[in-house]
Design goal:
CATH superfamily of the largest domain in chain B: Metalloenzyme, LuxS/M16 peptidase-like
Strand content of chain A: 15-25%
CATH topology of the largest domain in chain A: Cytochrome Bc1 Complex, Chain A, domain 1
Largest interface: A-B, 101 and 87 residues
Strand content of chain B: 15-25%
Largest sheet of chain A: 7 strands, mixed
Strand order of the largest sheet of chain A: 1-2-3-7-4-6-5
Helix content of chain B: 40-55%
Order of helices and strands of chain A: EEEEHHHHHEEHHHHHEHEEHEEHHHHHE
CATH architecture of the largest domain in chain B: 2-Layer Sandwich
Distance between the termini of chain B: 53 Å
Strand order of the largest sheet of chain B: 1-2-6-3-5-4
Mean pLDDT of chain B: 90
Oligomer: heterodimer
Structural class of chain B: alpha+beta
Helix content of chain A: 40-55%
Order of helices and strands of chain B: HHEEEHHEEHHHHHEHEEHHEEHHHHHEHE
Shape of chain B: globular
Low-confidence stretches of chain A: 1-23
Chain lengths: 510, 492
């Protein structure tokens, strides 16, 4: 039952960092983000851009692949797909008639799960190469599976496909997307400012009333997306390297193997949905032509009735301290020869983390310089990407990759990377190089902030990684990074025992 | 714990939850107004005034300056009304673009050019279509005066010498459509939708000026005189439109434009060529490119003739309903939502300015579903040519185009300046952008049907398929769809 308007718990505003750059404005100075936390724990963040005719609207849930278990990787991403399939009010022509069919579908699936568990010794995978009884089944499993599909066909009579998208589009919405990464799921749309309430109506509905229609069809969409990734020759290499970096932490796991996709069940997905899609685990972000004062009553109207729920389970895995250098040799074909040297670095929220953005820039320059001095041509990419994402609230890696023309050049490229690290650890860089690295980061940030969608994403992403206030602190700390900080961090973190090196030598053979 | 073991535990935990699986928490259906009934206000968006942004120089050059102080960045764009199909000596246009990309202007060395870009942290690109060349620089606002000077040098005095032409031509020598697209430093590989799109364009424009690509011999024999001649004839003030948008003082930019481009000598604007239609033998063709991959990529399409203004809106609405690159289209529902065959199946209108464009449908999927994917796509093309769109489809498309996509061209200062510059260069007025929303809102279902009949011709569609061909051919019919070969003649 919907509650009455509740008192605001907190209204906060990040004031500009006065004088952060000796009188100059810095990137953090333009982040006038305002916050309101509702009584049920829902967080609202607004960055008003007066005069903007449109509003970027995003809803973030602290829920992602970090909560997945081996055997069902990709389940978080799959839930995002299911949440596009409509609700009781959108996506159906007659919920009263559709509902009993969905209930029977759930009951049948419960029997299927029991049968799968009962037959677990017959279904167990025993072959290394997926070539031995991998697709075993039982007559009961087949029969229950058919029954579930038949019920889907019956329910399809009431299907109103595309409804979760249609009304956004009809009312001028653009940039409709959804994303699930390790630490967040988000849905977003850009709307005319006058129509921002549509977002609240649709997303409140999606948050509590989602119906998992076309479950098995959508499962195949994940297969298609996975195939799309695997068609890129780099994907298996990076996934193998991620697996080498760490022992237990799910941040390094891929977004689902083909063998996982058949394991998802409605019951498991609904369990995730109910546990994590609750107001106290949700943040709404708006960037554009609306103010906090305008948004608070609108949000209250649509989300205020949701009760605070038990806090969802936190992600528990902690990667053991690194103790030994690791190396991986990749001999697969189709990939240019390369070396990828990785070191684990702290996550967003750790005081050392902002300076690693500066280190990234300087290391790339230094490696290019070393390659030039060794007369070796190569493509240098220094990044913090793991799976798709570049920033995490947990320790991840800083990756220095050099792609070369011939397998025989890989060793020299590795030497160049290690020499570049030694030089950065050996003596402070000069002020001009440091200043230019910061200018690059500043400009990169402004290119993000120029786009309301990218800026709203950054705000919400920092909130899911740590706290939204960390974004401004992160930008400010980068600006304040000194040459001595760089020396200290490279010496502390870029040690052999914290290092994983991936080598791709496709022509080497076995 | 094994996967099966976990299911047991989880299954037990879920028994209670399943009993209430369909019980809504809140709000219930009765509490929610349908979006149609929300009485959402009309958007207050008003297109910015182009005349306020326009700055004309005496030599015929037209610029648009739009202030936007959201972030301290500036985007400077030069759009030239000459592209790959505009050169009389084959390869001149492509070589000039390559010189602009890597060598820079004659006023400074290539090293100094790269150093300047690096110093400014410039995001710099040169792109070229059959009819236009676009140079774009995005820099911090503190650097805009230097960037404007650099842009002027690039446009007026590119570094065209014999050595530069040889180097640029050599860099172009190995490029053929469909050979790139590896990404992330990979070795180029042929399996991708981008490859299929490029191969389709090569097929569509074969023998047409838009499809000409310089041969290795033509590139080897190209000299600086030919490239200079192309530059002199087409990079003239009246054939260039500039856009400056971002964190600048518009008055200061106008003065700087006068200083940098004012001395540029006025020269005759090249006559605008109306290019012929592409030739077609009228038979549907299948062009196959076998690649060992997990999926196959399909591009289905044909020529799009130059679209008269009075038919543009209905065509846009028709494409939006059928497959306009978003999540709620007929193609998306038939192939993705209802059957799980593909991650995407969308229609792309790519009109030319004075010559033929293309209308393509792009999709991909695992090989065993490709014949069904193709069959369903064709069925939807047939349906939109034979049945009127519904009132709801019409209403949704109009809202999406007039209140949504149209406004993107004016989403910020740089976009607004570039939209006006491109419109001026192409049409010499801003009537199109002024009237677009009202033209969209006036479209009727009959006009959509007419547009589908006029701009979609199933008999002239050709298909490019990149992927594991033998697996596609071996696909078992899933819903009674015919095999791949029934689509048309296999051309290779």
């Amino acid at each position: 039952m919907r509650s009455h308007l509740r008192a605001a718990v907190l209204v906060a505003c990040v004031a500009p960092f006065a004088g952060s750059l000796a009188g100059q404005q810095g990137p953090a100075d333009r982040l006038d983000i305002r916050e309101h936390v509702f009584a049920n724990g829902l967080r609202l963040l607004v960055l008003e851009r007066p005069g903007d005719a449109r509003v970027e609207c995003k809803i973030f849930t602290r829920f992602g692949a970090l909560i997945e278990e081996p055997g069902e990787l990709g389940a978080a991403h799959f839930l995002e797909h299911l949440m596009f399939k409509g609700t009781h009010t959108l996506g159906t022509t007659d919920w009263a008639r559709e509902r009993p069919l969905r209930e029977r579908q759930d009951q049948t699936e419960r029997l299927l799960i029991e049968e799968l568990n009962r037959a677990r010794n017959d279904l167990r995978e025993r072959g290394v190469f997926h070539d031995y009884r991998r697709a075993e089944t039982t007559p009961t499993i087949d029969s229950l599976t058919r029954a579930i599909r038949d019920l889907e066909r019956e329910a399809a009579v009431y299907r109103d496909g595309g409804a979760m998208m249609r009304w956004y589009q009809a009312f001028g919405g653009t940039g409709l997307t959804a994303t699930t990464e390790q630490e967040y799921m988000k849905f977003d749309i850009n709307l005319p400012r006058e129509r921002v309430e549509l977002f609240l109506r649709v997303e409140a509905d999606r948050m509590v009333n989602s119906v998992f229609r076309e479950f098995d069809e959508e499962r195949m969409i994940l297969v298609e997306q996975r195939y799309g990734d695997l068609n890129r020759p780099t994907t298996p290499f990076y996934e193998a390297l991620n697996a080498t970096v760490a022992s237990v932490h799910p941040v390094y796991w891929p977004e689902g193997y083909e063998t996982d996709f058949g394991q998802y069940t409605r019951a498991y997905e609904r369990d995730l949905y109910r546990r994590y899609f609750v107001p106290n685990n949700t943040t709404l972000v708006f960037v554009g032509g609306v103010s906090l004062e305008e948004m608070v009553p609108l949000v209250e109207r649509h989300f205020g009735g949701f009760e605070r729920a038990p806090e969802p389970m936190r992600e528990k895995a902690v990667e053991p301290r690194p103790t030994a250098e690791r190396r991986m040799i990749w001999r697969g074909t189709g990939l240019a020869p390369r070396v990828d040297v990785r070191h684990r670095i702290p996550g967003i929220g750790h005081p050392d983390r902002p300076a690693f953005d500066v280190v990234r820039e300087l290391l790339a320059d230094q490696i290019r310089g070393e390659l030039a001095s060794m007369r070796l041509s190569g493509t240098v990419d220094v990044n913090t990407r793991v799976v798709h994402e570049s920033r995490f609230g947990v320790p991840s890696t800083l990756n220095a990759e050099v792609v070369v023309a011939a397998p025989t050049q890989v060793q020299t490229a590795e030497t160049a990377v290690l020499r570049a690290i030694d030089r950065l650890a050996g003596s402070p860089v000069d002020a001009a190089r440091l200043g230019h690295a910061k200018k690059r980061l500043r400009t990169e940030w402004y290119r993000t902030a120029a786009d309301a969608g990218a800026l709203a994403f950054a705000i919400g992403h920092f909130e899911t990684m740590d706290r939204w206030t960390t974004l401004a602190e992160h930008l400010r700390a980068r600006e304040e990074t000194t040459a001595e900080d760089v020396v200290r961090l490279v010496a502390r973190y870029f040690t052999p025992e914290n290092r994983t090196t991936g080598i791709a030598r496709p022509e080497e053979g076995r | 714990m094994t996967a099966a073991g976990r299911l047991t535990v989880r299954g037990a935990l879920l028994l209670a939850a399943i009993g209430t699986a369909c019980e809504p928490a809140a709000p219930g259906p009765e509490a929610l107004a349908h979006p149609r009934e929300m009485e959402l206000p009309a958007p207050g968006f008003v297109r910015p005034d182009p005349t306020a942004a326009q700055h004309g120089l005496d030599n015929g050059l037209t610029a648009y300056v739009v202030e936007d102080h959201t972030v301290p960045l500036v985007t400077l764009t030069a759009i030239v009304g000459a592209g790959r199909a505009s050169d009389s000596r084959q390869g001149s246009a492509e070589t000039l673009a390559a010189i602009l990309r890597t060598r820079g202007p004659a006023t400074r060395s290539a090293g100094d050019f790269r150093a300047a870009l690096g110093r400014m942290v410039a995001d710099y690109s040169v792109s070229q279509s059959a009819e236009e060349t676009t140079i774009e620089l995005n820099v911090p606002s503190e650097d805009w005066p230097e960037a404007l000077g650099l842009l002027a040098d690039l446009v007026m005095s590119p570094g065209i010498g014999d050595a530069e032409v040889r180097a640029a031509a050599a860099s172009l020598g190995g490029s053929t459509p469909g050979s790139g697209g590896g990404g992330q430093g990979t070795r180029a590989y042929d399996g991708s939708l981008d490859s299929a799109v490029a191969l389709f364009a090569r097929h569509l424009y074969e023998g047409h000026p838009f499809g000409r690509a310089p041969s290795p011999v033509e590139l080897r024999t190209l000299n600086a005189t030919a490239v200079r001649s192309f530059h002199a004839a087409t990079f003239v003030p009246g054939n260039v439109a500039l856009a400056v948008g971002g964190d600048v003082d518009a008055q200061a930019v106008r003065a700087a434009l006068d200083g940098a481009f004012g001395p540029w000598e006025s020269r005759p604007v090249p006559a605008r060529t109306d290019f012929p239609p592409v030739s077609s033998d009228g038979e549907r063709q299948i062009l196959t490119y076998p690649v060992d991959a997990l999926q196959a990529w399909l591009v289905l399409g044909h020529e799009l003739p130059v679209v008269p203004l009075e038919e543009e809106a209905a065509l846009h609405v028709m494409n939006y309903v059928l497959g306009g690159g978003h999540f709620d289209t007929r193609l998306f529902r038939a192939t993705r939502d209802e059957r799980g065959l593909t991650n995407d199946d969308s229609g792309f209108l790519e009109p030319g300015v004075r010559g033929p464009g293309s209308y393509t449908f792009r999709t991909y999927g695992r090989p065993e579903v490709v014949p069904l994917l193709l069959h369903l796509t064709l069925a939807e093309i047939d349906r939109i040519r034979s049945e009127p769109v519904t009132a709801e489809e019409l209403s949704v498309a109009k809202g999406a185009l007039a209140d949504g996509e149209y406004t993107l061209g004016f989403r910020d200062g740089p976009a607004t300046a570039a939209t006006f510059a491109r419109e001026w260069l192409r049409f010499g007025s801003h009537d199109r952008s002024a009237t677009y929303p009202e033209r969209i809102r006036a479209v009727t279902a009959d006009q959509v049907l007419l547009a589908a009949g006029r701009y979609l011709d199933p008999d002239r569609l050709d298909l490019v398929l990149v992927g594991p061909l033998s697996r596609v051919r071996d696909a078992v019919s899933l819903e009674g769809e015919p095999p791949l070969e029934s689509f048309g003649t296999v051309a290779n």
